[in-house]
UniProtKB/TrEMBL annotation:
This is Protein DETOXIFICATION. GO terms for cellular component: membrane. It is found in: Membrane. GO terms for molecular function: antiporter activity; xenobiotic transmembrane transporter activity. PANTHER family: PROTEIN DETOXIFICATION, PROTEIN DETOXIFICATION 44, CHLOROPLASTIC-RELATED. It is a multi-pass membrane protein. Pfam families: MatE (PF01554). Belongs to the multi antimicrobial extrusion (MATE) (TC 2.A.66.1) family. The chain crosses the membrane at residues 218-237, 257-276, 288-311, 317-335, 356-378, 398-418, 439-459, 471-492, 504-523, 529-549.
Length: 563
C-alpha cells in the first residue's frame, strides 16, 4: 500500500517513468526514521523471492548435471564473442605469440651461426640443447605454480577491495539519504534533492601497488635458481658436453664450451624473466610479456651480426648477444611489474617458500616423467639409423611446435580458473573449462588439416634426401591426426594447474610415463619407426584421458560437479 501523496518524497533515481518513483516510508512515527522505497526496495524484495542461492546451492554452479556434460556444455556457443570469450582471447593470443617469438629468434641465430661453419653450428646446437633442458627443469614448475598462486591471491585481493568499496558506497548512500530528508539549516529542498544526481555515491579509490606474497616468492626463487644454474653449467660444462657425445678431442668441443659457458651467464635473467611472465599471466596480462619478449628478441637479432662479424667474436658473440637480450627482457618486465605490486614483502615470514617448493617438486617430477618419454623415443629412433632419426626429428619438432598455440589456451584456462576457484565462483569455473576444451578441440582439428596439406609440401624445405622424405611421409599421418589429442592434452594441463591440482597432474603423468615407456620399448622392437609413433600416440592419448577422467568423475577440485 502506498503512503499518502503528501508523505512521498520523489527522487530521480535511474530510469524515468512511474516505475522509477522512489519515496520514503516512516518506520515509526515517533522516531522520525524514514526508509527509501521504490526501485531499490523492489530490487531487495525481488531478491527475497529468488530460489535458494546459499553456498550449498551454488557450489554446483546452479543446476546439477552429470560431470561428463561439462565437455559438451553450450558447445554451439564455443565461438560466442561474450565476456568469457573475450577474456580467453585476451590471454591466449598474446601468450601464444610470445611463445612463438623465441623460436623465430632462435632460427635467426642459427642462420647467422651457420655462416661461420658446420662445426660451429653443430657445437651451438648441442650447447643450446643442454641449456634449454637444464632451464626447463626449473622453469616449468616455477612458472606454472607462480601463475596459479598469483591469480588466486589477486582474485582474493580484488574481492577484499570490492568489499571495502561496497561498504563505503553503502555509507555514502545512507548519508545522502539523510541529507535528503533532513537538509542543513538554510539549505533549500532543491539543493538537498539534487544530491542524488551527484557522484557522491562513487568511491574514489586511490590506485596503489598491491602486496601479493607469491610475487616476491617467485622473484626470489627465480633469481636463486638462475644463479644455481649458472654455477652448475660453468663448473660442469665440459663433463655435460662429453655426456652429450662431444668428445674432448672433437673440433666441436671448444666452440660448444665457449657458447655454453657464456650463455649460462644469462640464466639468472632467463629464470627471473620467466617467473615475472608467470606473475603477469596470473594477472591475466600476456601482452606485457609479449612486448618485452619481442623487444628483447629484436635486440638479439640486431646484436648478433655486430658481435659475431663486426667484432669478430664468432660463436662467443652469438652467446653475448643472447645474454644481453635476456637481461633486457628481465629489466623491462621488472620495471613494469613494480608499477603494479610491491616487489618486497612486508617481512620474510610472508614469503611462501613451503607452498612453492611442495607444489614445485610435484611438477618437477612431472617434467622429468614427460621428458623421459620424449627422450627415450628419440633414442629409439637414433638406433634405427641416421635416416630414420633425421625424419623423426623433423616430425617430432613439427609435432611439438604446434603445441605452442594450444599452450596459449592453456594459459588462459589456468589464469581464469585459478581466479574463479579462489572466489569459489564454480559456475565461472565450469563455463571456462567447457569453453577452453571446445576451443582446443577445434584448434586441433584445424591444425590437422593445415599440417596434412603443408607438411607433405613443405617437407622438402627440410631435406632433399629421398630416404628421409620417405620416412617423413610415413610419420605425417601420426603428426596430423593426433593434433586434436595433443591440443586437449596440453589444455588439460592448464586446467589442472588452474585448479591447483598439482598432485594429480604429477602422479597421473608418472603413471602415464611408466605405461608409455613400456609401449615405446615394446612397439619399437616390433614396428620400428611406425612402432615408435604408435607409442607416442598412446602417450598423448593417455595424457588426454587423465584430464577427462579427473573432471568426468568429479574428483578433487571438481567434486562440486557431483552436487
Amino acid at each position: 500500500m502506498h503512503p499518502p501523496t503528501h508523505m512521498r518524497a520523489r527522487a530521480p533515481i535511474g530510469n524515468s517513468g512511474p516505475d522509477s518513483l522512489s519515496y520514503f516510508i516512516p518506520l515509526h512515527p515517533l522516531l522520525g526514521v524514514w526508509t527509501m522505497h521504490g526501485e531499490r526496495e523492489r530490487e531487495r524484495e525481488s531478491l527475497l523471492l529468488l530460489p535458494d542461492r546459499s553456498a550449498g546451492a551454488m557450489e554446483g554452479g546452479g543446476e546439477h548435471h552429470h560431470p561428463l556434460s561439462v565437455f559438451l556444455r553450450d558447445a554451439r556457443l564455443a565461438f560466442r564473442w561474450d565476456e568469457l570469450g573475450q577474456e580467453i582471447m585476451r590471454i591466449a593470443v598474446p601468450g601464444a605469440l610470445a611463445l612463438m617469438a623465441d623460436p623465430v629468434a632462435s632460427l635467426v641465430d642459427t642462420a647467422f651461426i651457420g655462416h661461420i661453419g658446420p662445426v660451429e653450428l653443430g657445437a651451438v646446437g648441442v650447447s643450446i640443447a643442454v641449456f634449454n633442458q637444464v632451464s626447463r627443469i626449473a622453469v616449468f614448475p616455477l612458472v606454472s605454480v607462480t601463475t596459479s598462486f598469483v591469480a588466486e591471491e589477486d582474485a582474493m585481493s580484488n574481492g577484499r577491495d570490492n568489499d571495502k568499496i561496497h561498504q563505503q558506497n553503502e555509507r555514502n548512500v545512507s548519508v545522502s539519504e539523510m541529507d535528503e530528508l533532513i537538509p542543513p539549516e538554510g539549505a533549500s529542498a532543491s539543493t538537498s534533492i539534487s544530491s542524488f544526481e551527484t557522484d557522491s555515491c562513487e568511491v574514489s579509490v586511490e590506485q596503489k601497488r598491491k602486496n601479493i606474497p607469491s610475487v616476491s616468492t617467485a622473484l626470489l626463487l627465480g633469481g636463486v635458481l638462475g644463479l644455481l644454474e649458472t654455477l652448475l653449467l660453468v663448473l660442469s660444462a665440459k663433463p655435460i658436453l662429453g655426456y652429450m657425445g662431444v668428445k674432448p678431442d672433437s673440433a666441436m668441443m671448444k666452440p660448444a664450451l665457449q657458447y655454453l659457458v657464456l650463455r649460462s651467464l644469462g640464466a639468472p635473467a632467463v629464470l627471473l624473466s620467466l617467473a615475472i611472465q608467470g606473475v603477469f599471466r596470473g594477472f591475466k596480462d600476456t601482452k606485457t610479456p609479449l612486448y618485452a619478449t619481442v623487444a628483447g628478441d629484436a635486440i638479439n637479432i640486431v646484436l648478433d651480426p655486430i658481435f659475431m662479424f663486426v667484432f669478430q667474436y664468432g660463436v662467443s658473440g652469438a652467446a653475448i648477444a643472447h645474454v644481453i637480450s635476456q637481461y633486457f627482457i628481465a629489466s623491462i618486465l621488472l620495471w613494469r611489474l613494480r608499477l603494479h605490486v610491491d616487489l618486497l614483502p612486508p617481512s620474510f615470514k610472508h614469503l611462501q617458500f613451503g607452498r612453492f617448493l611442495k607444489n614445485g617438486f610435484l611438477l618437477l617430477a612431472r617434467v622429468i616423467a614427460a621428458t623421459c618419454c620424449v627422450t627415450l623415443s628419440a633414442s629409439m629412433a637414433a638406433r634405427l639409423g641416421s635416416t630414420p632419426m633425421a625424419a623423426f626429428q623433423i616430425c617430432l619438432q613439427t609435432w611439438l611446435a604446434c603445441s605452442l598455440l594450444a599452450d596459449g589456451l592453456a594459459f588462459a584456462g589456468q589464469a581464469i580458473l585459478a581466479s574463479a576457484f579462489a572466489r569459489k565462483d564454480y559456475p565461472k569455473a565450469t563455463a571456462t573449462a567447457s569453453r577452453i576444451l571446445q576451443l582446443a578441440l577445434v584448434l586441433g582439428l584445424l591444425l590437422s588439416i593445415l599440417l596434412g596439406v603443408g607438411l607433405r609440401i613443405g617437407s622438402r624445405l627440410f631435406t632433399s634426401d629421398q630416404g628421409v622424405l620417405h620416412h617423413i611421409y610415413i610419420g605425417i599421418p601420426f603428426v596430423c591426426l593426433t593434433q586434436p589429442i595433443n591440443a586437449l592434452a596440453f589444455v588439460f594441463d592448464g586446467i589442472n594447474y588452474g585448479a591447483s591440482d598439482f598432485g594429480y597432474a604429477a602422479y597421473s603423468m608418472v603413471l602415464v610415463a611408466v605405461v608409455s615407456i613400456i609401449c615405446i620399448l615394446t612397439l619399437e622392437s616390433y614396428g620400428g619407426f611406425i612402432g615408435i609413433w604408435i607409442a607416442l600416440v598412446i602417450y598423448m592419448s593417455l595424457r588426454m584421458f587423465a584430464g577427462f577422467w579427473r573432471i568426468g568423475t568429479a574428483q578433487g577440485p571438481w567434486a562440486y560437479l557431483r552436487g
